[in-house]
Design brief:
68 residues, three-stranded antiparallel beta sheet, elongated
Length: 68
Amino acid sequence: MASIRRLPSGSYQVQIRRAGMPAVTRSFSKKRDAESYARTGEGDSELARKLGRVSAQIPRFSVWCDTY
């Protein structure tokens, strides 16, 4: 789950947390950029690897092509 908060410096911090995994945090100067990162970051496979998801659970490109 992603959360966005405004820092005292005026920038926005996005924190994506999942149970049993380390949090991923990133700061942005614009709220629009923070919201965009939060939406795309939750489904990003690279982010899933950073959060500790096993790479075998991440669909390969060929699987996506076959699905399409």
